[in-house]
């Protein structure tokens, strides 16, 4: 399986992700929205956006590993943040950086960020979905 990340000419280059991914493989993997629960279902990082982002990305990595994949196979990420305002960007980036350091990767697939009103559990501040392509 190959995922090629591209920033085509004429589109801005964003340091934390690429504008386009081109994937070849045989299995499309859709990871359900991951929230800041550990393996036992306990909330990680109550009230701490960066800690919750970190846990969400770690959970995405765990889900991918469970089907034989890794962040290298991700073709699209979608991030939903409760009560999003631009001043929360440093916390979001900190959480991603912390997860990346633990995983030894830089999750740079195309991504969309949505500000939302609420998630299913009031303590959840963020949810991260992923799509991957595996051989």
Automatic annotation (TrEMBL):
Domain of life: Bacteria
SUPFAM superfamilies: YjgF-like (SSF55298)
Any Pfam family matching the protein: Ribonuc_L-PSP
Cross-referenced Gene3D superfamilies: RutC-like
Annotated PANTHER family: BLR7761 PROTEIN, YJGH FAMILY PROTEIN
Protein name from the UniProt record: Enamine deaminase RidA, house cleaning of reactive enamine intermediates, YjgF/YER057c/UK114 family
